[in-house]
Amino acid sequence: MDDAALRERLGRIERRQTLVLALLVPPYLLGAAELFGYWVTTVAATVLALVGFALVVVRRRRRPATTE
């Protein structure tokens, strides 16, 4: 495989991994809410979501521009 095909394949794998992780998070949040309380879990989930969003923005800004 050439470099472009490998990058495309890696991109698909990363998107699939992100989807799987996104589908696994809500049940754990509900369990944490029952264990620690909804207020504490909401604050923690909001902080984690903001940190995750910041990481996505930083990763995308560091990614080299694709030329087609």
Characterize the structure shown.
- The protein has 68 residues and is mainly α.
- Helix content is 87%, strand content 0%.
- It has 2 helices and no strands.
- Helix 1 (3-36) runs antiparallel to helix 2.
- The chain is elongated, with a radius of gyration of 17 Å.
- The two termini are 18 Å apart.
- The mean pLDDT is 87.
| Element order: H for helix, E for strand | HH
Please estimate the helix content: over 70%
**What is the 3D form?**
elongated
Unreliable spans are none
**What is the SS-derived class?**
mainly alpha
Rounded radius of gyration (Å): 17 Å
Sheet-strand content, in percent, reads under 5%
How many helical elements?
2
Give a short account of the largest sheet: none
Cα distance, first to last residue? 18 Å
Mean pLDDT across residues: 87
Count every beta strand, where a strand is a DSSP E run of 2 or more residues.
0
Short description:
With 68 residues, the protein is mainly α. It has helices spanning 3-36, 38-62. The longest helix is centred in the N-terminal third of the chain and has 34 residues, at 3-36.
Structural descriptors:
mainly alpha
Topology:
Layout: H1 3-36, H2 38-62
Helix pairs in contact: 1-2
